[in-house]
Amino acid sequence: SPNKQTEKTKNKFHLLILSISNYFLFMTNFGADTPFILLAKITVKEDKVSEYLELADKTDKAVEAVEPGMLHHTFDQDPENPLVFVWSEAYKNDEAFIAHLANPAVGEYLQEHPKLADDFTVEVYGTVGDKCLEVMKGTGVPFKVFQSKLGYSRL
Asked: Mind listing the pLDDT tens digit for each residue in 83-134?
């Protein structure tokens, strides 16, 4: 009968809408298992730029060699101030960040940094879990986390 067919069509439509809603709910469920971006801004002491670049290069090579969860890792110079640099980093998830801080080369970098630079601030773009936040706090580096509210990542 036409009413039964209309009811079946309505039910299929409702199931489709529910499926689509669940898909988007999943896609916007950010947390410890989702990628995030970290930008670390540094101001190097005027007479220490070449030493800092050597330290950054050594650290970058060590990160590339042993951190598969580091999806992007560059050291970028400000076009207007040659003393300002930014580490641009993309992490697969929170565990990749925790592994990054456990890398001995990163520990050495963080120890040498105060001798060569005046400033170090970190901004994180993406939602991270509580464990990752605690690890970030433990570094002593000032940081701010911009939590994701919507969107997607193909990283």
From this structure: 999 999 999 999 999 999 999 999 999 999 999 999 999 999 999 999 999 9
The distance of Cα 106 from the centroid of its chain, to the nearest Å, equals 16
**Residue 78 gets which letter from DSSP?**
-
> Which one, of 72, 69, 49, lies nearest residue 60 by Cα?
72
H-run or E-run covering 70: strand 70-77
Beta-carbon contacts of 106 under 8 Å, excluding residues fewer than 6 positions away, are 59, 62, 63, 100
* Residue (of 121, 150, 95) closest to 39 by Cα position: 121
pTM score, whole prediction:
0.79
Which residue matches tokens 């565990």? 95
